[in-house]
Amino acid sequence: MTRSNLATQFGQVAQFASFQFTNADLTAAATTQTITLLANPASSGSPNFTLPQGSFILYTRVKHSVAFSGGGLTSMKIRVGKTGGATNFFAPDFDVFQAVADGTLGEFVNTQGMGQLSAVTVTVTFTSDAGHNVSVATAGTVNVDIFYVPVSTPTFIGAYGSGQVL
């Protein structure tokens, strides 16, 4: 048996990132819009929020502070997933059309793992009621918070035998 310790950002083990979306982010002329999370959403041309291979998400929270509404909408839901995988992999549908309250939030512990060992890019998918494009929303603010552990040495030779995870 060989034991190998994998580095997790030396000194910054677990991290917590928050991503805020408003109705202004919804530009699709369709009932569904998937947005890739960015490392720095406020900055134009930001890189995607991609977790390095071997990393994992522990917890996802969805909390809205302004209900989505406007343009004849009767419902709006979001879910958190990953590129190349299920759009609801980390968080199932959460109703952002409902009234805002302190206890109205979605909290999801990631018990199914990451579903892959390669790098993961996180996505948020907005879906409106049938017949309305997501872009017609005139109000709404929601935060998606992700608690994760980025692994910085997933290719250590002793850990997987071949020197590569993939």
Task: Give an overview of the whole structure.
With 166 residues, the chain is an all-beta fold. The protein has one domain (15-41, 48-153): Jelly Rolls (Sandwich), CATH 2.60.120. 2% of the residues lie in helices and 40% in strands. The strands form 2 sheets. Strands 2, 3, 5, 6 and 8 form a 5-stranded antiparallel sheet that branches. The protein has a 4-stranded antiparallel sheet with strand order 1-9-4-7, with no helix packed on it. β5 and β6 (91-95) form a beta hairpin. The longest helix has 4 residues, at 157-160. The relative contact order is 0.34.
Major sheet: 5 strands, antiparallel
Principal-axis shape: globular
Tell me which CATH architecture applies here. Answer: Sandwich
Strand content: 35-45%
Contiguous helical run count: 1
Q: What's the count of strands?
A: 9
Q: What structural class do helix, strand and pairing data support? A: mainly beta
Mean of pLDDT: 84
Question: Residue ranges: pLDDT <50 for 5 or more in a row?
Answer: none
CATH topology: Jelly Rolls
Order of secondary-structure elements: EEEEEEEEEH
CATH class: Mainly Beta
Number of domains: 1
From the alpha carbons, calculate the radius of gyration and give it in angstroms.
18 Å
- Note the quaternary state here: single chain
Helix content: under 10%
